[in-house]
Structure formats: structure tokens, C-alpha cells
Design goal:
55 residues; single chain; little secondary structure
């Protein structure tokens, strides 16, 4: 995607909340690299052995 914002002027910005995945950018950039990770501690994982139910 290519966007041209010629003559862009930002006077005031108010951010009320931040989501889990947020990007706020004003201006130019050549690239954006996205990554993700889980910060859940290992003891909170639930691994169950599921047994199929027969009819």
C-alpha cells in the first residue's frame, strides 16, 4: 500500500487507550517490521488428554 499525505500537519494528538496490538505513526518510514510473542507463564498452560466419546 502506498499513501501520499502531502502537506500533512498534525497539531494535537490525544490517545485514550492502548490495545494489545497497536501502532501509532505520524510521518514517513521505509518499513515496519511486525512480531509477536506470548508472555504467559508456563504454569498457566493447561494441557489435557482428550478421549473421544463413542456413540
Amino acid at each position: 500500500m502506498e499513501v501520499h499525505n502531502y502537506g500533512l500537519h498534525v497539531a494535537n494528538v490525544q490517545i485514550d487507550a492502548i490495545a494489545a496490538s497497536s501502532v501509532f505513526l505520524i510521518g514517513d518510514n521505509d518499513s515496519i517490521v511486525l512480531s509477536s510473542f506470548f508472555d504467559t507463564p508456563p504454569e498457566s498452560y493447561s494441557i489435557l488428554n482428550l478421549v473421544p466419546l463413542g456413540a
